[in-house]
UniProtKB/TrEMBL annotation:
The lineage of its organism: Bacteria, Bacillati, Bacillota, Desulfuribacillia, Desulfuribacillales. PROSITE patterns: FE_B12_PBP (PS50983). It comes from Desulfuribacillus alkaliarsenatis. GO terms for cellular component: outer membrane-bounded periplasmic space. It holds the Pfam family Peripla_BP_2. It is found in: Cell envelope. Belongs to the bacterial solute-binding protein 8 family. GO terms for biological process: iron coordination entity transport. This is Fe/B12 periplasmic-binding domain-containing protein. Residues 20-281 form the Fe/B12 periplasmic-binding domain. PANTHER family: IRON III DICITRATE-BINDING PERIPLASMIC PROTEIN, IRON(3+)-HYDROXAMATE-BINDING PROTEIN FHUD. Keywords: Signal, Transport. It comes from the Bacteria.
Length: 288
C-alpha cells in the first residue's frame, strides 16, 4: 500500500498519542476527523470567507483557520506548533521548504486516487489502522443495507449528481467519479447520463438544458453549506422543451460543489439522498 508524497523529512520520527496536526486540504481534514483526530489548524472555504467548509464546521470548534488551501498563513501555522503538516503537492509544493522548517511536512502527489487508499495511508501514519478498518466496515455495511433494501420509489428513479460550475453549466458526476462509483456501481442506482458505457471522465460538463434532456428524475446539486445562498437553476430551464423538470435537491459539498472524497461527506450525502427520496419510509431512516 503506497502513495507517493513530497517530504524533506527523511528520518523516522514518532508522533504523540494526541498529535497536533495541521491539515492543508478539506479532504485531509475529513480523513483526520474520521480517524478521531481533530486538526489544530485547517483551511477555510476560500480567500473571501472566514469560516470552515460547512459540512466540517461543527467538528472544528477548537481549530484555527490557517488560510485557504491555495494561500496559506505560515505565521498562523507556526504559532500552532504542529507535530506534523499534511497537504497536497499540486497546491502546496511551493510552500514545502517553509512548512518543513515548522514541522515534518508530507504533501501527497495525487489526491484523486482511490479515496479509501488515501484514508488508509493517513491512518497508517498515526497508527490507527483499527479505526480505519472499523469506519470502512461501517460504511460498507450502510451501502449494503441500502442496496439490499431495494426501495421501489428509490430504485425506479434516474438520479444525477452535479455541481454548479458557471452560469447555466454544470459538472455532472459520472459513474467514473468516486461518488459515482458508490452510487451507481456499489448501490446500483439508475443512471440518467449520456451513453453510460462510453463515459470515461469522472465529471461531464453539461448545460442545465442538456441535463433536462436526459431521463433524470432527481437532480442533486452539491453546494458548500457555509454559503446559505442556493442556486436557482430554474431560471436556466427552457420550459418549452422541458415538459417534466426533475425534482431538485441540494446536498453538502465543498467550494463550487467539488466532491469531498471522505467518509464524513459521503455519509452525509447518502443520508440526505435517501431522506430526500424516501422521507416517508421509517426503514430508510433507520438505515441511514
Amino acid at each position: 500500500m503506497q502513495l507517493e508524497y513530497y517530504s524533506l523529512h527523511k528520518s523516522k520520527f514518532s508522533l504523540p498519542d494526541e498529535p497536533r496536526v495541521v491539515s492543508l486540504m478539506p479532504h485531509i481534514t475529513d480523513h483526520l476527523l474520521s480517524l478521531k483526530i481533530v486538526p489544530v489548524g485547517t483551511v477555510k472555504v476560500n480567500d473571501y470567507e472566514t469560516e470552515f467548509h460547512g459540512y466540517l464546521k461543527k467538528y472544528l470548534t477548537n481549530s484555527m483557520v490557517i488560510g485557504s488551501s491555495i494561500e496559506l498563513n505560515l505565521e498562523a501555522i507556526a504559532s500552532l506548533k504542529p507535530d506534523i503538516i499534511i497537504g497536497e503537492g499540486k497546491k502546496h509544493l511551493f510552500y514545502l521548504n517553509k512548512l518543513s522548517s515548522i514541522a515534518p511536512t508530507f504533501l501527497f502527489k495525487d489526491l484523486t486516487v482511490d479515496w479509501q487508499l488515501v484514508f488508509k495511508i493517513i491512518g497508517n501514519m498515526f497508527g490507527r489502522q483499527s479505526v480505519v478498518a472499523k469506519e470502512l466496515e461501517l460504511f460498507k455495511q450502510k451501502i449494503n443495507d441500502i442496496k439490499n433494501f431495494k426501495n421501489k420509489t428509490l430504485f425506479s428513479k434516474n438520479i444525477l449528481f452535479a455541481n454548479h460550475w458557471k452560469r447555466n453549466l454544470f459538472r455532472v458526476y459520472s459513474h467514473k467519479s468516486h461518488l459515482g462509483k458508490i452510487l451507481y456501481e456499489e448501490i446500483q442506482l439508475p443512471y440518467a447520463g449520456y451513453d453510460y458505457e462510453s463515459i470515461e471522465k469522472p465529471l461531464i460538463t453539461l448545460s442545465i438544458n442538456d441535463i433536462m434532456q436526459t431521463s433524470v428524475d432527481e437532480l442533486f446539486i452539491l453546494t458548500d453549506t457555509a454559503n446559505p445562498q442556493r442556486i436557482h437553476i430554474q431560471q436556466y430551464f427552457d420550459h418549452d422543451k422541458q415538459k417534466h423538470p426533475p425534482q431538485i435537491h441540494y446536498l453538502p459539498g465543498l467550494k463550487d460543489g467539488i466532491e469531498g472524497k471522505g467518509l464524513i461527506l459521503y455519509n452525509q450525502i447518502i443520508q440526505h439522498l435517501f431522506h430526500a427520496i424516501s422521507s416517508e419510509s421509517k426503514e430508510v431512516q433507520k438505515i441511514v
